[in-house]
């Protein structure tokens, strides 16, 4: 147990390693990591490189230096600074109070279930098919595989495992799972949705990825999305509606507490 405790301490000290000091103020590893996590997704990879981390550290140092420069020049005492600071404080307080108010609004489980049960027509899933495919680079190879399956030389699943170039699903017999319109490239989608369960394309289908042999294994239409699958999106929807109603009502109540004079005629 003592060894494990020591390992945790070592990990924490490594994570909070001091990377630089500016007039005695420490800039730590955890502060740098937090900035990287808060950066836009497309920049995070760059900042995680050795050079990227160095650039970010230099930026953190520069900000501390400008802070010290501002303190030395007593910028806080200038009229311009105080005016801008007051405006920023006001904006922050408005934003904070609205956010704080919104966070108090809750949607209970029984509200979710009641809405779901009373609005089943809003939870009908788009038509979907479940298909398997075999992807190969050449048309003639696809034709030969279709013939081999048709003559009983291999099942579709066996052929997918043996020949398909799609490594992401060949070990599952080419199974792509369920998908609805708009999720696949147009040529593949058109062929897939034209098949009945159990049918296979009689000719190869060409897409930008190569030549496909497609087999439909199931077709779902007008199915209601289960409650558990719909719950998260339903919660966001009802919470947004409830927050908006409460926000408008609260604003009207506040108008009774404070003097409001609207001069713009609308």
TrEMBL record:
Keywords: Isomerase, Rotamase. Residues 126-218 form the PpiC domain. Gene3D superfamilies: 1.10.8.1040, 3.10.50.40. GO terms for molecular function: peptidyl-prolyl cis-trans isomerase activity. It comes from the Bacteria. InterPro entries: PPIase_dom_sf, PPIase_PpiC, PPIase_PpiC_CS, PrsA_foldase, Trigger_fact/SurA_dom_sf. This is PPIC-type PPIASE domain protein. It comes from Pseudoramibacter alactolyticus ATCC 23263.
